[in-house]
Amino acid sequence: SQQGEEDPQALSIQEGENATMNCSYKTSINNLQWYRQNSGRGLVHLILIRSNEREKHSGRLRVTLDTSKKSSSLLITASRAADTASYFCATDSTGANNLFFGTGTRLTVIP
Amino acid sequence: EADIYQTPRYLVIGTGKKITLECSQTMGHDKMYWYQQDPGMELHLIHYSYGVNSTEKGDLSSESTVSRIRTEHFPLTLESARPSHTSQYLCASGELGQETQYFGPGTRLLVL
Predict the structure, then answer these.
(1) 3-class SS of residue B58
(2) Chain B residues with beta carbon closer than 8 angstroms to that of A40
């Protein structure tokens, strides 16, 4: 990946459990976003966190950002079968004309 | 779901054919993008545009071309399709000054 990687590559959990995905990147960023992709579909924007923020919440989602470690995590609490999808982080850097996407984490939530 | 559309959703064609993948958005966004994504893999930017008559190549070299004659349309053309072009093609758009991108449903292309 040009910018970084996510881990784990795949995660399988039971409904109701929490899911945590991590994203690492290589260069300084302006902000970091998380997107969700259902199989065979386009990406849907979930949440954006700016480089001067450390944590952000949106419903059952919690995102953290550690710029010193160049890493971010996405926590989905009380997971549901409908959360089954691939999750991608994307970074936006100064001077770059586009977003750089990570390799994605494939989450499976078992009912 | 965002107001961005792609057609066709699925396309199976033979080698050497010329194809155009359509992308249109009704949000008035100036920025539009084309990404190529193999199954289970990351997205690679192949083209982008910041407005009418503006097109740029992305990070991944591609034999495709794009045009931006109207704000709402950003078609991608392959003059002579090859099996190596088999992939999913995702179109996205966004507002100038905003980082969030809105994606279409994608076109799955299979070149035989």
Answers:
(1) coil
(2) 88, 106, 108
